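User: Here's a chain of 92 residues. Predict its fold as tokens.
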Amino acid sequence: MKGFDIPDKVIYVCTGSKCKKKGGKDLAKMFRSMIKDMGLQNTVEVIKTECTDRCDFAPVMSMQPDNAWLHHVTEAQARQAFQEHIISSDKP
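Assistant: Prediction complete.
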């Protein structure tokens, strides 16, 4: 049985219908790939959420524990946010 590991950081990506159409699902895939490439699988997790009820701002995502919320996210903005909230926040 696999252990119940709790990640240090979580990226929530909305994949409700509007967010999915506007790239939410692709952002989740991109983050998973980046996490794997950087060997961060044990510390960072991507969770797809069904709906954040912020459809007018699609796609929407949140990075925890920084409580950073982003809307109308492009791939470039997502990569920048990953650098700021996932990578850089590890440094003292």
